[in-house]
Amino acid sequence: MDRRLFKNIFGSWLGLGATVIVGFFLTPFVLHYLGDVGFGLWILTTTVTGYYGLMDLGLRSAIVRYVSKDVASGDWEGVSRTASTTFFSYSIIGLLIALITLLVVWKFDILFHVAPQWSRSGKLLLLVMGIGSAVTVPVALFGGILEGIQKFYFVGAVQTVTVLIRAGLIVLALRSGFGLVTLGFIAIASNFCSNLLYWQALRRFCPSLHLSQSNVQKSTFRMLFSFGIITFGISMAQQLRFQTDSIVIGSFLSVQLITLFAIASKLVSYSGDAVQFMAQVFTPMSSHFEARGEHKQLQRILIVGNRYASLVILPLASILLILGKSFIRVWVGPAYLSSYSVLVILTIPMTLYLAQAASTKILFGMSRHGALAIALFVEGVANLGLSILLLRWYGVNGVALGTAIPMVFTSVFFLPYYLCRLLRMEILTFLMEAYTYPVLVCFPFASVLWCANHWIHPHNYAGLCLVLLMGGSVYGACLLAYFCKKEHKISLEISSSVEPSEADPFKPESPSII
Q: Of 200, 216, 232, which residue is a domain's last?
């Protein structure tokens, strides 16, 4: 594959790896210090503030789409217009977020079932996270521009440093006797500082980029809004799919049960992030090829992108299903083993969906994501309705089933057929080319993992690492055989005009600023 593609994927995984590893070991530490109620309140608050992402109106994806397209056509002024217009729009959105935060804090006790002794901490945490999010919204623009010019490796490096510093501050704060509100301050401050680093990087990567009032144009906003409003629908659907579960549990059951659900959903989320962070590089790439009319390259991205997505998600799903109980026991303790059922319910549909991660990124890159928005919105509404209905009989497992059932329908009956029709490919050809080898190579891995788990019965991290080493050695050998086969090497080369040249204003001032 193209060297840039591998570098961007590595950079994305670098930031993700730091986030997953730190989050994995930090979660039981925070849970120990905060307890079930405090930890559940933290999850509830981050979920509520996560809904503020809907107010983005899809502009983040529009930035990546049009910045990458302007770079492909050499329209550097267009990049400045996009950036300036988005910065102004984000500033208005930030003000609205601040007002909504004050309203939710005012009605906090009515909206959520929280014990009286935790009410004040919950309100202060929500106030800090909400106002902090409002301040951070405008500068979030800079990370989107870096992704648009395909500098994922720099974003990943900054994320890695930020995660490590934030984790150290959280450990220090909790050990010093500070609580929830301090964690909120740390999260917001670290996020804001990382965006400032993105801005400093843009000053070197893009010396011709200028944020000015004269570049704020209604026509640019209409262009961004027409693309982003569809993404907004997708974001709303994603919130309904994944973020409503904690709200439903907190509203209809109890805050304590959010912790039980969050343990399973975090493990699934870590696995999903590994695929999504890899697949995000295909959005600007497909936008570039679509702008140049290179249809064959889009077909290649569909096959190769989903093939690599499957090579990542299938072994991760096998680990969750086979070693899930051992992971939970070692990670947070045997008291939370009942969350394994939630883990199984969420893992299966998520695997089906993430095995097609490149498909959704191609739709964004081609600006053909309208049908995806409709499908995901229907799925999100069905998720919310089923979760509320099924929790009456199955509790937390019913909420998980409400998420799983609609996602299976989207993954099996919508995505593959729609993408194949859009790119004029035979569905059978796509399925065979994209998934045959990943399934074959994962089978011996899963078999070895299952046997090793029943042989060793891991009860600590050393045992888990031994089982993973045994299975990983088999999977690594199969992957090595795959990459050594010449017929499987497909080059997704980007035209040299995209690379920085001497006259290119996006050329870095130095070989590397990392």
A: 216
Helix %, strand %, coil % of the chain (to 5): 85, 0, 15
- Inform me whether the pLDDT recorded for 407 exceeds 60: yes
- DSSP secondary structure string for all residues of 158-171: HHHHHHHHHHHHHH
CB 308 within 8 A of CB 278: yes
- Return the pLDDT at 513: 27
- Measured distance CA(39)–CA(42) in Å, rounded: 5
- Give the domain range for residue 35: 1-216
In which residue are the tokens 């521009």 written?
A: 145
Report d(CA 505, CA 509) in Å as an integer: 10
What pLDDT score does 511 carry? 30
Is residue 382 one of the residues assigned to a domain?
Answer: yes
* Helix axes of 295-331 and 461-484: crossing angle, nearest 10 degrees: 160
How far apart CA 362 and CA 369 sit, in angstroms, is 9
Mean pLDDT of 192-196: 84
pLDDT (tens digit per residue) in 11-28: 666 766 777 778 777 878
Residue found by looking up tokens 């999977």 in the block? 475
In a domain, 221, yes or no: no
Whether residues 162 and 30 fall in one domain: yes
Question: Is the pLDDT assigned to residue 352 strictly greater than 90?
Answer: yes
Rounded to a whole number of angstroms, the distance between the first and last alpha carbons of the chain is: 23
| pLDDT tens for each residue of 20-76 | 778 777 878 888 788 777 787 887 787 777 777 667 777 777 777 777 777 666 677
Contact 308, 482 (CB under 8 A): no
DSSP H helices in 424-512: 427-456, 461-484
Rama region for 265: left / alpha / beta (φ>0; ψ in -120 to 50; rest): alpha
Across the chain, mean pLDDT equals 79
Residue 508 within any structural domain of the chain: no
Residue with tokens 């019913």: 398
Is residue 507 a part of any domain in this protein?
A: no
Is 152:281 a contact under the CB 8 Å cutoff? Answer: yes
Q: How many domains would you assign to the chain? A: 2
- Residue 259 class from Cβ within 10 Å (0-12 exposed, 13-18 middle, 19+ buried)? buried
Residue 359 exposed, middle or buried by CB count within 10 Å (0-12, 13-18, 19+): buried
In DSSP notation, 316-347 reads HHHHHHHHHHHHHHHHT-GGGGGGHHHHHHHH
CA separation, residue 189 to residues 18, 24, 384 (Å) = 18, 21, 33
